[in-house]
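ugh ok fine here u go
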Amino acid sequence: MDDLSSNDKDKKNQDIDFEEYTIASEPHKRERAYAWRTAIGLQAVDGLQVSEYLKQTAQRNIEGEITIDEARKLIDTYYQSKTNREPDDDEKQEADKVSGNITKLILERSFSFSVSGLMSIHRHVFEGVFKHAGKLRTYDITKSEWVLRGDTVLYGRWQDLRMALEYDLEQEKQFDYSGLSMDQVVEHITRFVSGIWQIHPFSEGNTRTTAIFTIKYLRSIGFEVTNDLFNQYSWYFRNALVRANYRNVAKNIDYEPKFLICFFRNLLMDENNDLKNRYLLINPPQEWAQEPLTTTPTTTPTSTPTSTPTTSAPKWLTNNENIARLVKALGQNKMSVKEMLEAVGLKNRENFLEFSLNPAIKDKYVKMLYPDKPNHPRQKYMLTVKGQTLYSYLC
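structure:
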């Protein structure tokens, strides 16, 4: 599959005018449009296209005529009552149902960073599609990859899946982001997501599940990522995961994470790296043998990216001086409201809450120690990963 065919496939899947919704619409319509756009775009990972009925139903949900649950119910009823079967109905049914399920998941803010949480995402995404939805695979797999010219990545042994997932998730829970530059944060997140995908816990739908898990995880640590890249470059995302996890000593081919790093730099740093599938192909033909426009990842925070610069400040920065002051005061500490007031040199609690703390929480720079109990008597506040990244930048 070349770039042209994959891009054309994506465009056919997306003739709802999402741009109109995401630019001009009120917040609720914009949020629903983003969710549907991602859900539909991710079907290209497995070469699937949604039906015209799905697009019409999605538009009704975006406009607020029906709820997401009503939309999913309509999709189920449509295929149950359809009498004239078409050759691609099974594929469209999967794409339609999964798109509705993904949209519901993206719109929900709940997230559990655990093996059961990952399995729950798979179960909810493929509910009504796969009998094994939400279950770990029970056999070893290989997959012939276009980007590897028919070779396969070595995936995790089925007997070790739960143990491998538990280990990776626990390592991530314990990882200390403090003091890292944004370059380093992106490199680490790339390695983490790549590792989860390579375990390949599910027999089908692994990449789509990984994408939703990644979106939700990044949001949980403070990065309010939009879904555009997963929508527009879903096939690139999968191929980049393949290259990051492929090694062939006999052919002198080593793991190559730079393509996936480019994806995440675009996602988290607003860069404009060139994401083309042909760059990822092993031993490309001469007309494709062009180096992609990439940044050079480094552990040095003062490095200068070689990607095309954006005209606005990166979205992980803030121009709110009150937030910046609070982030610098918090640092690596956990503080109560009283302690934060003293640290920033303020006395008026109400003003501090209105103009400093609440905006910092809203923009995901600061989080509660007890988020489920806002009025906990020992409530304290700390920086999110996004907040820690800003702290490193400011200090």
